[in-house]
Amino acid sequence: MRLFVLGGSGGTGAHLVAQALDAGHRVTALARRPESVPRHARLTVVRGDVLRPGGWRHEVAEHDAVLSCLGGAGRRPTTVYSQGMTGIIAAMRECGVRRLSCLTSAALELSPAAPLGRRLLIGGMVRPLYRHLYADMAEMERIVAAAGDLDWTIVRPPRLTDGALTGDYVTAADRPLPRSRSLSRADLAHYLLGHLDDPQSRRAVIEISRR
């Protein structure tokens, strides 16, 4: 496959690019600092900013899928997710690419069956503290869900770690996992790469967690 990866120099994006290349795919990675992305014969690195799609939107052409690993942890108001996704979808439509996968967070929706401590921590502390970030993620999810002409998947991971790739994780479609645990960025990348041909993940919100 030919994959277009946004955020390819970030934590999850770097794992995704490496795993895709190891699997024999061809990858185009958008990065603000191309020098931070290791070189490879099947890798094309494009310098660009997701908020300025004019400089990279034509590069999306002739790819089989677009995967967005954009992320942020700041507490200030942001439009990286929503504005960035608006540009991504416009580029995909212009170039005739239909398959999209992107990341938000499991903290957007908590299962009533989740442990009380987790509900208090996420609902009472984390979401209020990072309210701007989560508001922009939620807006991005609305933008993606409204793109009825695309085959999209929204992936909601829990707290991410720098742990090893295990391949041992669980997922749930269109419902929160009752006991979401942390997940390594390597395992998240493994799912992102592996689910692209899974019809059950298309036009679905997928929660994921280590087992």
From TrEMBL:
It comes from the Bacteria. InterPro entries: NAD(P)-bd_dom (IPR016040), NAD(P)-bd_dom_sf (IPR036291), Polyketide_Oxido-like (IPR051606). One of its GO terms (molecular function) is biliverdin reductase [NAD(P)H] activity. Residues 7-199 form the NAD(P)-binding domain. This is NADH-flavin reductase.
